[in-house]
Design goal:
Elements (H helix, E strand, L loop, with lengths): L9 E6 L3 H12 L4 E7 L2 H11 L3 E5 L1 E2 L2 E2 H8 L5 E5 L5 H5 L5 E3 L4 H11 L10
Parallel strand pairs: 1-2, 1-3, 3-6, 6-7
Antiparallel strand pairs: 4-5
Helix pairs in contact: 2-3
Length: 130
């Protein structure tokens, strides 16, 4: 595995409520060569709890979730600078862009994810508080 500037893989929390979507995103993340998955979740509530427990370097969130959407997670955790949103719904691109959050159209591509991971990892991570 390729290492980042901090000489360690980027830890990622991945969130998608569809099993096949989650598997595809996880594969793309692992194929970047710079990231490991520290936790996964399938809902807003699970994601917020997992983020507090695992303190990931980055969040990769599907936009539409069964109990809300990715913006609910971003609002709860205040991690706009460490979030990537993925969706098949291209109409959400503008909403996400207004907050300067990177948006990737599904299916995720490992090269695009790698580039975003490395650029997001340049900022100093802040601790996620309960």
């Amino acid at each position: 595995m390729e290492m980042t500037a901090g000489n360690k893989p980027i830890s990622v929390l991945v969130v998608d409520d569809e099993r096949h979507g989650l598997a595809a995103i996880k594969d793309a993340i692992l194929n970047t060569g710079v990231a490991n998955i520290c936790a996964q979740a399938s809902s807003v509530a699970e994601a917020v709890e997992a983020a507090k427990e695992t303190q990931p370097d980055c969040l990769v969130l599907d936009y539409h979730l069964s109990d809300g959407n990715a913006m609910d997670i971003v609002t709860a955790l205040h991690l706009e600078d460490r979030t990537i949103i993925i969706s098949a719904d291209d109409s959400k691109k503008e909403t996400v862009a207004r907050l300067n959050i990177p948006f990737i159209q599904k299916p995720a591509n490992c090269h695009e994810l790698k580039s975003l991971f490395l650029s997001l990892n340049q900022s100093k991570p802040k601790r996620i508080t309960p």
